TrEMBL record:
<keyword id="KW-0456">Lyase</keyword>
<dbReference type="Pfam" id="PF16363">
    <property type="entry name" value="GDP_Man_Dehyd"/>
</dbReference>
<dbReference type="GO" id="GO:0010315">
    <property type="term" value="P:auxin export across the plasma membrane"/>
</dbReference>
<dbReference type="GO" id="GO:0050377">
    <property type="term" value="F:UDP-glucose 4,6-dehydratase activity"/>
</dbReference>
<dbReference type="GO" id="GO:0010253">
    <property type="term" value="P:UDP-rhamnose biosynthetic process"/>
</dbReference>
<keyword id="KW-1133">Transmembrane helix</keyword>
<protein>
    <recommendedName>
        <fullName>UDP-glucose 4,6-dehydratase</fullName>
        <ecNumber>4.2.1.76</ecNumber>
    </recommendedName>
</protein>
<dbReference type="InterPro" id="IPR036291">
    <property type="entry name" value="NAD(P)-bd_dom_sf"/>
</dbReference>
<feature type="transmembrane region" description="Helical">
    <location>
        <begin position="20"/>
        <end position="40"/>
    </location>
</feature>
<dbReference type="InterPro" id="IPR016040">
    <property type="entry name" value="NAD(P)-bd_dom"/>
</dbReference>
<feature type="region of interest" description="Disordered">
    <location>
        <begin position="544"/>
        <end position="575"/>
    </location>
</feature>
<dbReference type="InterPro" id="IPR029903">
    <property type="entry name" value="RmlD-like-bd"/>
</dbReference>
<dbReference type="InterPro" id="IPR005888">
    <property type="entry name" value="dTDP_Gluc_deHydtase"/>
</dbReference>
<dbReference type="GO" id="GO:0008460">
    <property type="term" value="F:dTDP-glucose 4,6-dehydratase activity"/>
</dbReference>
<feature type="compositionally biased region" description="Polar residues">
    <location>
        <begin position="551"/>
        <end position="575"/>
    </location>
</feature>
<dbReference type="Pfam" id="PF04321">
    <property type="entry name" value="RmlD_sub_bind"/>
</dbReference>
<dbReference type="GO" id="GO:0016853">
    <property type="term" value="F:isomerase activity"/>
</dbReference>
Length: 867
């Protein structure tokens, strides 16, 4: 029985094995048949389209376009192009571009499309060909390198553009084309229906700034389903208060940080599952860019590059909306009647617009190289509430409110086109949802106004006589005459401007009247040519009225009660961002050296004090090797205690530091390719026949020193002369330094307020609170040569002491004596002179005159009276 059972079991096993083998055979056969069929299908599709590597999901649109195109057979040149698969959702998979095989002459009437996701129609066209097209706006011709060369808004055009730059192929696209459409149908209605993109998680960069805050607040308000994450470094021109309307919305999150931090951006994209970026963050003020263009390159080009790279590595972005400017086109001719269209050439004229154009190139390259779904906007000037008052309209409003003159650059005939912020926010809403990937959209208005008209309109609304307040001032180094845009393409997406100029201006004035202190101390911005340097970039300004954010670290914050999520410490601990600078400062125990260190701390610039003595070359080298600075500041030197008389009796010591040491440091820096900013003195001049007291004629940088009355001054003049041979040195001639620290015994005010008697001679002087930040800026700008480092103009001892009485101590008294009487109580003679500060003023137009600076930086902050 047992053996029978074993037998049966064996048989059953055998049968099962056979069945399994048979089943596997059948399956394999089916798979092979399927594969062969797919391959065959693919091959035939590919061959029909003349393409290789075709996406099997492509729709097959072979559109006989005799209706749309009539070819000029006399032109024989056939053209080829590079094509990529487009389609926003999987761009990262489509990084490899495919080369279209040259199409043969007879095939030129065929249109080809390759992707149902976002179809792009393509066919080669001929120079001289007359193309008749459906009424489809925003059609752009690309040359073979993907550069847009011609913009088509009409029914037909002749392909004879001189600017066509050679061979080109015609593309047009729409995400919602009906497949196999009858060319007789109304294409505008049936084929080119607007596509709609729905974002989920949007990252808006620079959203605490002007335009982006209106966009962010609008999206947060109107689309509760979208998560809006905003990233802003809270620069001088942005404020968290601008985001107050959004702060308690559950779909809003604020992150303080810099777009230039790759770690932070990558982290955000991933943890917040960002699918859409609207990139507004930039340095935008043209005036600033003339003096501080590196900052613009860093923010606008490098920052954008970091974002793009983050998009590439994370591979999840479905829309990258890059916010550019009309300024990239350069200026429009005064008499031009046709505005710049999106395919016009980019010809930026100032450093700001050049960096914006540079950023655009990177955006375009990431679109082309990696298929990143990019859209670019180029906008006219924008105005409205929340704008930082360095820009014309808010600046003139605030000045008018304060009864101050309105400075007009040049003759005021420059024309700008002004759009109200809400209209612009709506334009972005439209581009976000309806914009075509790979396209550029101008955001413009045809309503143009000259600067002088703007000033007059504002005066009218304030009931001010414009003739009395308008003040013509020096123009910008270059001031584009006009920016005139063709905005039809955006209008075709359904957007239009709705706010009239008069209405927008009234609303804006109303807002500034209701919020006069929104931006805190904006005196620097209200100058004729403001520079970033003069802005109080204080974080506190951002906090007033808004939630408190930790200024030192990156922090996430949505609703006030939302759990805060911190970025991984190891990755983002370098926020605030790593500075590109590192300063090595000599003179730690000195007054200027000490203040410089504090300024670096405030500005987030890493610095170290030099340990070696100036005369010890090996120690200087050791300092440089260990600190690895980008710039060296020399604020070391002997000035004598309690005053320069000391140097008369300590000549070798004076020479050792002031001459040998300074030259040593300059030489070591030169050898190491470093700029040395050297705090020198202007006490090497005295009034003479060519520069008499009270004449207003100051000594210039190139004048030869004429004062050697003290040993100190003598050595300083000698070393300055020798330093001229070092092209790595920036010599700053300081005079009678003054600061707001009235307890400092080195302070000129402190000194003269303590003397029994003082002479009364007008002199040029240096207000350190204003000028030391400028010295840092000069280092950043790598300025070299000799600079009179004083505030423009002169002030006398008595004038200062009178101010002292007025602001500090009304009971204060002082007595004068003559220079001759003074000579009896001092050892060495003192220099009195006026320095010509026009070179410095030209570089830093916002520089205050000595008297204004004294009041602003010294007496107002120390005011103890009701003056
Ligand atoms: C689209 C760009 O707009 C802004 O640049 P723009 O230089 O045109 O704006 P401004 O408001 O700085 O200047 C406009 C116009 O006014 C003149 N002006 C300004 C201030 C002042 O005190 N007096 C003046 O006469 C100035 O010279 C200009 O001609 C925006 O800043 C930029 O980001 C854009 O992209």
């Amino acid at each position: 029985m047992e053996s029978i059972l074993w037998n049966l079991e064996d048989k059953w096993k055998l049968t099962t094995q056979k069945s399994i083998a048979f089943f596997i055979c059948i399956c394999s056969l089916i798979i092979v048949i399927c594969l062969v069929t797919i391959c065959f299908k693919r091959r035939s599709t590919t061959r029909r389209k003349g393409l290789v590597g075709q996406d099997p999901t492509d729709i097959d649109v072979e559109w006989s376009e005799s209706k749309l195109l009539s070819l000029n057979s006399s032109v024989k040149k056939l053209l080829t192009s590079t094509v990529r698969w487009s389609g926003p959702s999987k761009w990262e998979e489509r990084r490899n571009t495919e080369r279209v095989s040259p199409l043969l002459e007879g095939e030129s009437g065929q249109w080809h499309s390759h992707n149902s996701d976002s179809p792009v129609w393509q066919r080669p066209i001929l120079m001289g060909e007359k193309c008749e097209l459906p009424r489809f706006s925003g059609l752009i011709l690309y040359d073979e390198r993907g550069r847009p060369v011609h913009h088509v808004d009409n029914d037909s055009f002749i392909v004879n553009q001189a600017e066509a730059l050679g061979d080109f192929v015609l593309f047009f696209s729409s995400s919602s084309l009906s497949v196999g459409v009858d060319p007789d149908r109304d294409l505008n209605q049936s084929c080119f229906k607007m596509s709609t993109y729905t974002p989920k998680n949007i990252l808006i960069t620079g959203a605490a700034g002007f335009i982006a805050c209106h966009v962010a607040n609008r999206l947060v308000r109107s689309y509760p389903d979208y998560k809006i994450v905003v990233l802003d470094k809270l620069d001088y021109c942005s404020s968290l208060k601008n985001l107050i309307p959004s702060r308690s919305s559950p779909n809003f999150k604020f992150v303080k940080g810099d777009i230039a931090s790759a770690d932070l951006v990558n982290y955000l994209l991933i943890t917040e599952s960002i699918d859409t970026i609207m990139h507004f963050a930039a340095q935008t003020h043209v005036d600033n860019s003339f003096g501080n263009s590196f900052e613009f390159t860093k923010n606008n080009i490098y920052g954008t590059h970091v974002l793009l790279e983050a998009c590439k590595v994370t591979g999840q972005i479905r829309r990258f909306i890059h916010v550019s400017t009309d300024e990239v086109y350069g200026e429009t001719d005064e008499d031009a009647v046709v505005g710049n269209h999106e395919a016009s050439q980019l010809l930026p004229t100032n450093p700001y617009s050049a960096t914006k154009a540079g950023a655009e190139m990177l955006v375009m390259a990431y679109g082309r190289s990696y298929g990143l779904p990019v859209i670019t906007t180029r906008g006219n000037n924008v105005y409205g509430p929340n704008q930082f008052p360095e820009k014309l309209i808010p600046k003139f409003i605030l000045l008018a409110m304060r009864g101050k003159p309105l400075p007009i650059h040049g003759d005021g005939c420059n024309v700008r086109s002004y759009l109200y912020c809400e209209d612009v926010a709506e334009a972005f809403e439209c581009v976000l949802h309806k914009g075509e990937v790979g396209h550029v959209y101008n955001i413009g208005t045809t309503k143009e106004r000259r600067v002088i008209d703007v000033a007059q309109d504002i005066c009218k609304l304030f009931d001010i006589d414009s003739d009395k307040v308008i003040q013509f001032v020096e123009n910008r180094p270059f001031n584009d005459q006009r920016y005139f845009l063709d905005d039809q393409k955006l209008k075709n997406l359904g957007w239009s401007e709705t706010t009239r100029w008069e209405e927008g201006l009234k609303k804006t004035i109303e807002w500034y009247k209701n919020n006069p202190d929104w931006w805190g101390d904006v005196s620097g911005a209200l100058l004729p040519h403001p520079r970033m340097l003069m802005m109080p970039g204080d974080i506190e300004r951002n906090l007033d009225g808004a939630e408190k954010y930790d200024s030192g670290s990156t922090e996430f914050s949505g609703k006030s009660n939302e759990t805060k999520t911190a970025a991984p410490a190891s990755k983002t601990s370098n926020v605030p961002q790593k500075s590109p600078f590192k300063f090595l400062i000599y003179g730690r125990t000195g007054w200027i050296g000490g203040v410089l260190g504090k300024l670096c701390e405030k500005q987030g610039i890493p610095y170290e004090y030099g340990k070696g003595r100036l005369e010890d070359r090996s120690k200087l080298l050791a300092d440089i090797n260990s600190v690895k600075p980008t710039h060296v500041f020399n604020a070391a030197g002997v000035t004598g205690r309690p005053n320069v008389d000391w140097c008369e009796s300590h000549k070798p010591e004076t020479i050792r530091t002031n001459v040998a040491g300074t030259l040593n440091l300059a030489d070591v820096c030169r050898e190491n390719g470093l700029l040395m900013v050297n705090f020198a003195t202007g006490c090497i001049f005295e009034y003479d026949a060519a520069h008499p007291e009270g004449s207003g004629i100051g000594f210039k940088e190139e004048d030869t020193p004429n004062f050697a009355g003290s040993f100190y001054s003598k050595t300083k003049a000698m070393v300055e002369d020798l330093l001229k041979n070092y092209d790595n040195v920036c010599t700053l001639r300081v005079r009678m330094p003054i600061s707001s620290d009235l307890s400092n015994p080195r302070n000129f005010i402190t000194k003269i307020s303590r003397y029994n008697k003082v002479v009364n001679i007008p002199n040029s002087m240096t207000i350190l609170d204003e000028l030391l930040p400028i010295s840092i800026e000069m280092a950043k700008r790598n300025l070299r040569g000799i600079w009179n480092f004083t505030n423009p103009g002169v002030v006398s001892h008595n004038e200062i002491l009178e101010m002292y009485k007025k602001y500090i101590d009304p009971a204060f008294t002082y007595a004068n004596f003559t220079v001759e009487e003074q000579a009896k109580v001092i050892v060495a003679a003192r220099s009195n002179n006026e320095m010509d500060a026009s070179k410095l003023k030209k570089e830093f137009p916002e520089l205050l005159s000595i008297k204004e600076s004294l009041i602003k930086y010294v007496f107002e902050p120390n005011k103890k009276t009701s003056a």
